[in-house]
Amino acid sequence: MIYLESRRRKAKANGEGYGIGHKNEPEPLTDEKLPNAFIAILPLIIIGVFNKVFTGLIPQVYGKKFDFESINIPKVAAVDVTKETAIWAVEGALVLGILTVLLFSFTRVKQNFNAGINASIGGALLATLNTASEYGFGGIIALLPGITGSASGGMSIALATMGDKYLEQAEKLGINPEVMHRVASMASGGMDTLPRNGAVITLLAVAGLTHRQSYIDIFAMRLIKTLAVFL
């Protein structure tokens, strides 16, 4: 907060405001009636709750593995449910969240469906292509020690090289491998301060800003939050 306040004061002293020429700006709000605050956050609550529910329910229903021959579909490899549970749970919860939005705001969604679907597809493609291009770049130069093109690419290279050692140490210390993986994911994706990090590139693209305009603040905040962990 101290850093953010200092940046705010500096911007005010320089006469800076919100700025002009920003990309991807939402349309200004009109005087139309907005939904109830509880209804507005209800889809998020639904997603969080049912993600937890499905995470526990899916293994109970399908077991550790699902064999398609049990439903008369031969020549299809069995699915390791333990590896897919997290993905299926999130997808199921998201579907329920979407249905909740449609239930309470179908008229509003119908009116702006074309614009909304175009924006959502564009945003999804932007994030996907940014991550894919950075991951591919990292794969090409993977032979150069310590250099990679993305957070996920760097984590893959590091775990492929040192994963067995990390797992061995985690088992000795009684650390759950899932916890270790999440820490590695947070370290590479959430705490990576380098400018070519896929998350940084996507954030700036969505906000319509450039590295020159905003990277210094991203860099500072990531250093601050990382250092705060050790205080």
UniProtKB/TrEMBL annotation:
Q: Which GO terms describe its cellular component?
A: plasma membrane
Q: Name one GO molecular function term.
A: gluconate transmembrane transporter activity
- The name under which this protein is listed is Citrate transporter
Species, as recorded = Aneurinibacillus soli
